[in-house]
Amino acid sequence: MPPNPASLAPLAKTLMKGVIVVELLGVFGAYGLFYKMNDSQDFRSTMNRRLPSVLEVYYQSNEWAGVYGVREKDLAAWSANQD
Question: Who's near 47: CB < 8 A, 6+ residues apart?
Answer without folding.
Answer: 37, 54, 55, 58
